[in-house]
Amino acid sequence: MRIPISWLGEFVDLPENASVEHIHAALVRVGLEEEGSHAFEVTGPVVVGQVLEAVAEPQSNGKTINWCQVRVAPEGHEAADGGADVRGIVCGAHNFEVGDKVVVSLPGSVLPGPFAISARKTYGHVSDGMVASVRELGLGEEHAGILVLSTLGLDPEVGTDAIALLHLDDQAVEVNVTPDRGYAFSLRGIAREYSHSTGAAFTDPVNRVADDLAGTSPAGFPVTVADDAPIRSRSGCSVFITRTVRGVDATRATPPWMVARLKLAGVRSISLLVDITNYVMFELGQPIHGYDLDRLTGGITVRRARAGETLVTLDDATRTLDPEDLLITDESGPIGLAGVMGGAATEITSTTTAVLIEAANFDPVSIARTARRHKLPSEASKRFERGVDPAVARAAAARVVHLLVDLAGGTPDPLGSEFDESSDPAPVELPVDYVTRLIGVEFSADEVRSTLEAIGARVDGSDGAFRVAPPTWRPDLTTAADLAEEVARIVGYDRIPSVLPVAPPGRGLSREQRLRRAAADALAAAGSTEVLSYPFVSAEANDTFGAASRDDLANVSAVALANPLDVAARYLRTSMLPGLLDVARRNISRGLTDLSIFEVGLVFRAGPASSSGSIELPPGGSLPSDAELAALNAGIPAQPRHVGVVVTGNAVGKQPGQPAEPAGLADAVTAVRQLAAALAVDLRVAQGEHQALHPGRTAELFIDTPAGRIPVGFAGELLPTLAQDLDLPRGVAVAEVDLDALLEHGRRDVVVTPIVSMPAATQDLSLVVPIVIAAGDVLDTIVEGAGELLEHARLVDDYRGAGVEEGEKSLTFALRFRAPDRTLTAAEATASKSAAVALAAERFEAELRE
User: Quick count: other Cβ atoms within 10 Å of Cβ 88?
Assistant: First the structure.
């Protein structure tokens, strides 16, 4: 919201020469956010001049210029720049005559651009200044000719300071208004906030307006509100006030003070009649719409749109209407989108002589939906969707009547109407000590009462509790907490001490939260970098990484976005890898070739594609039932939390005496093992398959449970062809695990094994097995067969060659045996090893290799 300082000063007492910094500081104290300041980029000397002579001089380029003699100071007096009182100036415009008074920028002045003015030779003359147009002064876009002051109804003395005359010396402060404080989108609201901050006297502009200029109650104009499809069981229109002014002169120019204020407020001047409606909207916060009365057919009906209806709005766009759109109609059909934009059929033009003024109040939700549906934000909708004071409509309409009479020469007419079914905000019960308990600072009962009365509330009661009736312009005050916040805001946030609260004992992170953090910490501690990527991906990316094979895609349906940011990425991810690989590609393109990155995030799985469908939303006019809410919740896709890992480049960089070690499958598997160890999960690894990964270099990750094997993820190396298509190096190792599954099936408590002081007995075991047998399965069998004396076992060699038959391999395991209470004998260790060999022979036909 931009606030011209001179305009603000009409409603609240400002200090003399109030600065932008002072006003910003005052408004920030009551919770408004400073955004910036605005001023006309004009510096003097810019004065009123009078054309004494104009000689037309055709030029060789086909253009005709005027060589003018212009008086810029009273005769015999020195001009504002210290030069002569008459200047020779070249002017290319032709919309003036000798004797006209114009705006002259003398040498040394600067116009918006910035454009410095100096005496310069042009078209064979030395032009000692410039006669300015409206656009050159920064007042508007008109540039067809120079500004002739008589068209504004002005006849000042020659040499008068034109900057002050045209109000170009005004400034505006800009603040950000939060969505709950719609009243601050007006000079009335901002002035009240400044008064709260500084204690300056506030004059409500509503109280200045006499409601009935004609001396009789306006009536006779038919208005019907027929909202047969309300949103939230509320009528879309609660107030509709109309007034009529006849005999207006729509060709009159808008006064300079109004043009300057609207410009600083961020709105360009259009025409006097339209400017007046905009001026009142900024002043009182009530959007106003004016109709050409002679172009209306019959009375006005406020209703919802019907199927197939269209409307040509003021921006000349033909809009197909939705049954939820609230319309202004007459007997000819729709003539405006209520609270958003009027229609072209009843637009005020330069030939308008009779104006019907509308000041209405519309439901915020209805207006917000219509504005977004048609992508048609406006100053009116911005205010209605935040809440407009329903009690200000009558005064706003009267204010427009005043201005049309004073500035456009109109005559008020008794024709009009009043529809008002608005209600005051519901009273709020406020215990006397509630503000103190909530804010943590002592507030007396008198202090609470006076503060709430200062914001316009009516406060009743004294002992124990107040009954507070919020003012009509504060629909956001609905609970005791809202009122407490107002007390703290008005009294001053600086009164609240900065004290770090003490967390209640027994609270903190949940088990899942602690373990999720532990998982991320484990990967980061191992040298991997956590990243964040967008969850929006293409259908191709989901098909490639979202399932292990094309056949499995039938069991996973991706969630499509109705309004994607990028049409090429209109699906939510079913795997973490597309985003991670995109991050890797971006880093590699910038020279970071050795990467180990991971991400913890959600994937979105809508379930089997054959069962996917749409969930019908309940109607907007009522609250959804429990069954409807249950159906909506059931339609939310599953969102398990996954961890993705990408490793590429060198796992160990080249250094003296040691070659580089390129990253591969082992590094990806090691990363997920570290993650599993941090979660106390017994993660198992087996040979696996995945359509995006290299055959033979793909691992399936699973957990053994009493109910059976539960797959939790995969690891492997990207197919070289796929890596090439993704502009990645040939060797890229990836892994992805279901973190929620790890947390669900992991051990709740970490078992700590005591340190045993007894000596260990070590032996090696080499078994010959068919080549198709997985080494991990053999290792599990050895552990099972050796029994409790086996403390540790690991694979140390996988040999295939001379001495081993074709189709077989020799697996060598290092075994360590230990008893907790005695020194083992060689015979005991050998007996355990023999038991392991026997079980392996039984399951895999394993033979002991001598």
Answer: 16
